[in-house]
Design a protein that fits this description.
Elements: H1 3-9, E1 10-15, H2 23-39, E2 41-46, H3 48-55, H4 62-76, E3 84-87, H5 93-102, H6 107-111, H7 114-122, H8 131-134, H9 136-145, E4 151-154, H10 159-176, H11 182-192, H12 195-211, H13 214-226, H14 232-243, E5 254-257, H15 285-293, H16 314-322, H17 325-336, H18 342-368, H19 371-399
Parallel strand pairs: 1-2, 2-3, 4-5
Helix pairs in contact: 4-18, 5-9, 5-19, 9-10, 11-14, 12-13, 13-14, 15-18, 16-18
The structure holds tryptophan (TRP) and iron/sulfur cluster.
Length: 403
């Protein structure tokens, strides 16, 4: 696939291997992946090298975390028949692209990424003044660009990394996409489309370049996508020629901002392992019930007869996620009038969480019982990812006069 048409079709995202996932991951990330997989060519990978940038001193748990996380992805409904699941370190081409991109990346760009200083501050006990840690966002750029992904679903904290990726891609295309005879080659390529299509293309190009007509740009791209007679290289040239510059070898990706998860933790803060307030996807029914039954409520509601205020209660946030309008009304009225007790109020939430977890856990059990199947899924995903990565690297090497 050529650079730009691949871009329109592909979604890529990665997660550091943290081990078992919880409901926060499910509502914040995995449900979104499951939807995207029906619409796009999705590549989802375990960022195990990224884990090493901060956990280089204690890598022993990483393999187990990788495994557990993949099981949880599958359990959540990520479908290996639709999406490609793989492990970063099994596709060493990421490292090659990282190296090559490092040649053109100004140090200042990396030092300016907000997470660089933030994380060093936050993880004071670790020595993160390493080369690998500074290069973290550039490795992420390589992860994305090697698949020529158009969309990268990420949370707010990762948007700066996608921005850096765009800048690096632009610089790469600017330096290496500029063939000395680019203009002539582009004109030659145009001719190969045939007279009629070439003329339409030229008009769209003019409309875009002279009037900034975005619709013309989109139409021209669609026209190129539909051409049967031109090869990948010519097509990339013509994509580049549209916008004026050179060949588009590494298209710029767009962040697909996943809405902050509404999933609260058991204490009302964001659900996160470091706050110790999670419901793991593999929690058994008894533990789920206990965790919800003992979770705090409106602290002003000391006795059953005290009226409460759902706005001051983390249980209400669970109702916001799980309950329909009539249950919510029952909570609002019952709480404020002391008509219902807190245990009663938690009932529908407990039922809803258990109902949500049941199919997830059933799938997890199925996959856990078939480790060879899971290994095959990962191996096949890695192979498929490598094929796509190799295609990009052939062009990257060629552009950098390495092959
Ligand atoms: N940095 C991401 C995180 O900490 C993980 C990641 C690595 C990633 N490479 C990526 C996410 C590429 C999206 C695309 O969550
Ligand atoms: Fe919270 Fe429900 Fe108790 Fe009100 S009744 S304080 S919303 S748990």
């Amino acid at each position: 696939m050529n650079a730009v048409s691949a871009q329109h079709a592909r979604v890529l995202s990665g997660m550091r291997p943290t081990g078992r996932l919880h409901l926060g991951h499910y509502h914040g990330v995995l449900k979104n992946w499951v939807e995207l997989q029906h619409e796009y060519q999705c590549y989802f990978f375990v960022a195990d090298w990224h884990a090493l940038t901060t956990h280089y001193d204690n890598p022993v748990d990483i393999p187990q975390h990788v495994w557990d996380m993949v099981i949880d992805w599958l359990a959540a409904g990520v479908n290996p028949g639709e999406a490609t699941l793989f492990v970063q370190s099994k596709v060493p081409e990421h490292a090659e692209l990282h190296l090559l991109l490092s040649m053109i990346t100004p140090l200042g760009w990396l030092e300016r990424v907000p997470s660089y200083k933030d994380q060093q501050e936050k993880l004071k006990e670790k020595d993160l003044a390493t080369y690998g840690f500074l290069g973290y966002p550039l490795l992420q750029a390589a992860d994305i660009l090697i698949y020529r992904a158009g969309m990268v679903p990420v949370g707010e904290d990762q948007v700066a990394h996608v921005e850096l990726t765009r800048e690096v891609a632009r610089r790469f295309n600017h330096i290496y996409g500029r063939e000395p005879d680019f203009e002539e080659k582009a004109v030659e390529a145009m001719k190969k489309m045939g007279k009629k299509a070439a003329k339409v293309y030229a008009n769209y190009r003019k409309a875009y370049q002279e009037q900034g007509d975005e619709e013309a740009l989109a139409a021209a791209r669609a026209l190129l996508d539909a051409q049967q007679n031109i090869g990948i290289s010519d097509r990339d040239r013509l994509f580049g020629y549209l916008e004026g510059g050179g060949k588009v070898i590494l298209p710029e990706p767009h962040p697909l901002l996943t809405k902050a998860s509404k999933m609260p933790g058991l204490d009302g803060q964001k659900m996160s392992k470091s706050y110790n307030n999670t419901i793991p996807l593999n929690a058994n029914a008894e533990d789920v019930e206990k965790a919800l039954r003992t979770m705090p409520t409106d602290t002003n509601r000391v006795r059953r007869t005290d009226p409460g205020d759902p706005d001051r209660c983390p249980v209400w946030q669970f109702h916001e996620v799980y309950s329909d309008a009539s249950v919510k009304k029952w909570v609002q009225e019952g709480c404020r009038s002391a008509g219902i007790g807190c245990i009663e109020c938690k009932g529908p939430v407990i039922d809803a969480v258990l109902a949500e977890l049941a199919p997830i856990q059933a799938r997890a059990r199925e996959y856990e019982a078939q480790p060879d199947l899971v290994k095959n899924i990962i191996n096949e995903g890695c192979e498929k990812a490598r094929d796509a990565a190799r295609e990009t690297m052939d062009e990257v090497r060629h552009a950098m006069h390495l092959a």
